[in-house]
Amino acid sequence: MIDIGLTHIALPVSDVDRTIEFYSKYAGMQVIHSRIDAEAGVAVVWLSDRTRPWINPFRKRDIKVELRKSDQCQANWVKADVPKDTVLYLKDQAGKTYVRYTTQVNGVSYGDMMNYRTPFSACAKLPDGREVCTSIVGN
User: How far is it, in rounded angstroms, from Cα 15 to Cα 11?
Assistant: First the structure.
C-alpha cells in the first residue's frame, strides 16, 4: 500500500493540555507549532510525529540581499533569499534601476548580470512593497 500520510489535521478540543498529553503518549507526537488565534482567542496547537517534512507558514522569513561580483565575467548581480514574486535589480547612485528580475520561487534567487564597472547597490522589492538594498559598492 502507498503511504499518502498527512502532515497534520485540525481537531477542535475542549482541553488542549490533555490532548497534547494523549497524542504524545499514544502516537509519539510532539508540538511543532502553537499560538493563540487572534480572532477566536483560543489556543491552536499543531502536533506531528515528525515522519514527514513540515514547513511553518507562520515563520517570518529572514530577507537576505547581497551584491555579487565576478571579475572574470566583469559583471555584478543580485543574490537574495526572498519570497516568490520579489523583484531583484541593481540600482546606481542616481537611483536608476537595471536588469529587473521577478523571482519564481520562495528562497534563494539570482538576478541578471550587469557591467561591473558601474557602482551599484543590490535591491529587492518585496511583494508587500518594501525595498531592501545593500550599500552602493564601486568597482
Answer: 11
